[in-house]
Design goal:
elongated
């Protein structure tokens, strides 16, 4: 797959916290060998002994605005589990 990439551009990088869990969000656009422009978003949750990553790829460009909105919604839903308050 790496040989097929023609151009990669990082769009944003954000390091934040969800409660006590560090979160890294990356967004970048790339052009594949077939000339297709794609947008990729990755969200990584860093726990003490392991990390979980969700990576989603969608078409890039003006016509793919709805797909990118759905990708952002999906990434926001990828959160650490919060235990309900004790009674």
């Amino acid at each position: 797959m790496v040989r097929d990439l023609q151009r990669v551009e990082r769009r944003s990088r954000r390091l934040s916290r969800e409660g006590s869990v560090p979160v890294l969000e990356l967004r970048f656009d790339y052009t594949s060998g077939a000339g297709k422009r794609l947008h990729s978003s990755t969200r990584t949750l860093f726990f003490k002994r392991y990390a979980l990553t969700l990576s989603v790829t969608a078409p890039s460009g003006r016509s793919a605005r709805r797909a990118r909105r759905q990708v952002r919604r999906l990434l926001r839903s990828f959160r650490p589990y919060e235990a309900p308050p004790a009674p």
